[in-house]
Write a structure and sequence with these properties.
152 residues, mainly alpha, three-stranded antiparallel β-sheet, 62% helix, disordered C terminus
Length: 152
């Protein structure tokens, strides 16, 4: 899969997850064992697994929209994948630190979000940092050195 298609597919998935976060029937209420959230609008577990609230859902929508827009060119999709890899790696680490796992009460980052963010960071890291070099080599060998034009 090419980096551009990663951005498109990832963007569509995150847009769908963001939309799902606005459907109350898909959100299971928090239990007493969950950390305190200052922002508790649409707060709960999406699909019964992933902690969300309105801010978390809006972030999903923005990341998804960015991915769809980044699909338009190789360089923007590579930048998107690199940024997502770094951002989601940071979110993974924040989710592991008790004082940061609610982003100061604003966005829940605990529970199943930790492994999902780690997996996302790894996949995005591949498409942001590793795959562009193999794509560049493939296009250079086959059709010349103008990689940006070839990747479109």
């Amino acid at each position: 899969m090419q980096t551009r298609y990663f951005a498109l597919i990832f963007g569509i998935v995150y847009l769908l997850v963001g939309i799902a976060g606005f459907i109350p029937g898909l959100i299971t209420p928090h239990t007493d064992a969950t950390p305190n959230l200052t922002v508790d609008t649409l707060s709960g577990y999406l699909f019964g697994l992933f902690p969300v609230n309105i801010l978390h859902t809006l972030v999903h929508l923005l990341v998804g929209l960015w991915g769809v827009v980044a699909y338009r060119s190789f360089s923007s999709s590579r930048t998107f994948a690199q940024t997502v890899a770094i951002l989601f790696a940071v979110l993974t680490i924040m989710g592991l630190i008790p004082v940061l796992n609610t982003t100061f009460g604003l966005i829940p980052l605990f529970g199943h979000d930790i492994w999902l963010h780690a997996l996302t960071a790894l996949i995005a890291g591949y498409f942001g940092f590793v795959a562009p070099w193999s794509e560049r080599a493939r296009f250079s060998e086959v059709e010349g050195d103008d990689y940006e034009a070839q990747a479109r």
